[in-house]
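Field log, afternoon session.

UNIT: design team B
ACTIVITY: writing a sequence onto a fixed backbone
BACKBONE:
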C-alpha cells in the first residue's frame, strides 16, 4: 500500500473536518475592582482600598506609600499584597518563618517563638497571617500585570545602578 492509496482511503472516510481548538475565556473586560469585590470577604480591607494598594505598589512605590495612598495601615497593605501573590512581603527570614510554623502547629509557645525569631510583635503577627492565609488564586491572576510593573521598575532601577555594582568575577583573591 502506497501513500496515494492511504490518501485515497482517508478521503473516502472523512466526510467533514471538525475544527479543533482549545477553548479560551477572555475576561479582560472584568475590572480589577470587580475581581476584588468578588473576594471581599477574604481581603483584610475594603476592595477599593485593596485595588488602590495593588495599583500604587505596582507602579513601583513602596509599601508604606501604597498604604498611605489607600488609607490603610502598612501591615494591611502587606496582607493585601500577600493575598494577591506578591512575594517578599514577609518580614521574617526562612528560618524564622519555620519557627512561626512550629508555633502555629503547637510545638513552641508564643513567648519562645517570639524570642527565637527576634521579631517585633507586629512582625510576628504579619508573619503569622502570611503563614495561615494562602494567596487567592483568582486575585493572583487578576493582579499579575499590575504587580509586574513593580518588578519592571525594580529592574530599571537595578539597571541604572549597574555601574556601581561589582560582580562575582571582580572578586579575585
Amino acid at each position: 500500500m502506497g501513500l496515494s492509496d492511504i490518501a485515497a482511503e482517508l478521503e473516502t472516510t472523512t466526510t467533514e473536518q471538525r475544527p479543533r481548538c482549545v477553548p479560551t475565556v477572555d475576561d479582560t473586560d472584568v475590572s480589577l475592582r470587580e475581581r476584588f469585590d468578588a473576594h471581599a470577604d477574604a481581603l483584610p480591607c475594603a476592595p477599593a482600598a485593596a485595588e488602590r494598594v495593588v495599583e500604587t505598589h505596582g507602579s513601583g512605590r513602596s509599601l508604606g506609600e501604597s498604604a498611605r495612598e489607600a488609607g490603610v495601615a502598612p501591615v494591611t497593605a502587606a496582607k493585601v499584597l500577600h493575598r494577591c501573590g506578591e512575594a517578599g512581603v514577609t518580614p521574617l527570614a526562612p528560618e524564622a518563618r519555620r519557627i512561626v510554623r512550629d508555633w502555629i502547629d503547637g510545638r513552641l509557645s508564643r513567648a519562645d517563638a517570639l524570642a527565637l525569631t527576634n521579631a517585633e510583635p507586629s512582625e510576628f503577627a504579619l508573619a503569622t497571617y502570611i503563614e495561615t492565609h494562602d494567596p487567592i488564586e483568582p486575585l493572583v491572576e487578576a493582579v499579575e500585570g499590575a504587580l509586574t510593573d513593580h518588578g519592571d521598575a525594580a529592574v530599571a532601577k537595578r539597571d541604572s545602578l549597574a555601574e556601581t555594582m561589582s560582580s562575582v568575577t571582580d572578586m579575585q583573591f
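LOG NOTE: The first helix runs from residue 3 to 13.
NEXT ACTIVITY: expression trials, pending approval
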